[in-house]
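Input structure tokens:
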């Protein structure tokens, strides 16, 4: 099975507004794929449907061959899907390490807060490993709210990784970052993917997509507009038209 996640004829309506219309798209296992499109294209809605935040109005989504269309959100982590939102999920008053440890503990124990010492040592080691993987080990003891924006986003990804997912879903992971933070985050996401994890990024920033992604799907006005390799997509005149409009070729 080469595709890990498949959307078939997915539609989403909000009252009379059609946000997604008949989107069929599949994402290859172990690849780093991106979903792009101009603002209002339906990218966030699609992210919310495939990550279980919104139910699809029509169509279905399968993960590793199993239908997950009506799966409750809290089941996703158990199945092997993790997501990181644009909205920060960290506890601002806890340190980076404590945040990740809480996330790891929630995966492991599910409400069993009386943890033997060996388990605590294991959680500490796991949290250290995750901070290392996202490149913020040096910030281990920093209070989350004092960290730079880019570091907070990396912390959030570390927390998402606590459930040891086979698929990581990221919604605009570099929103609000400086160019340097964006580049570093891109390198980190590529490294996660190299470590045999499938990563799917919903992104507006084309330069960032060019840095990280190999397979790209383009949404426009709630429909799948194009799909292909990064080179095919950047060379596609129709994509340039919708994406850049007239006279914006610098972006």
């Amino acid at each position: 099975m080469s595709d890990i996640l498949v959307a078939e004829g997915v539609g989403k309506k909000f009252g009379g507004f059609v946000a997604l219309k008949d989107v069929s798209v599949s994402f290859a296992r172990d690849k780093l794929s991106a979903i792009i499109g101009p603002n209002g294209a339906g990218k966030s809605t699609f992210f919310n449907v495939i990550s279980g935040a919104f139910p699809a109005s029509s169509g279905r989504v399968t993960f590793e061959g199993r239908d997950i269309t009506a799966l409750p959100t809290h089941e996703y982590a158990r199945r092997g899907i993790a997501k990181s939102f644009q909205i920060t999920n960290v506890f601002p008053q806890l340190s980076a390490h404590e945040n990740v440890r809480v996330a790891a503990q929630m995966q492991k124990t599910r409400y069993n807060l009386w943890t033997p010492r060996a388990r605590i040592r294991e959680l500490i080691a796991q949290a250290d490993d995750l901070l290392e993987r996202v490149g913020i080990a040096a910030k281990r003891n920093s209070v989350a709210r004092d960290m730079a924006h880019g570091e907070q986003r990396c912390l959030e990804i570390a927390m998402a990784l606590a459930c040891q997912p086979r698929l990581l879903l990221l919604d605009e992971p570099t929103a609000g970052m400086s160019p340097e933070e964006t580049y570093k985050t891109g390198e980190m996401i590529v490294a996660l993917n190299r470590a045999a994890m499938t990563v799917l990024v919903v992104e507006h920033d084309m330069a960032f997509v060019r840095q990280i992604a190999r397979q790209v799907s383009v949404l426009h006005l709630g429909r799948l507009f194009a799909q292909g390799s990064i080179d095919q997509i950047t060379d596609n005149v129709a994509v340039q038209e919708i994406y850049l409009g007239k006279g914006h070729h610098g972006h």
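Strands lie at 3-14, 17-28, 32-36, 58-63, 66-67, 81-84, 167-171, 198-202, 215-220, 223-229. The chain is about 35% helix and 25% strand.
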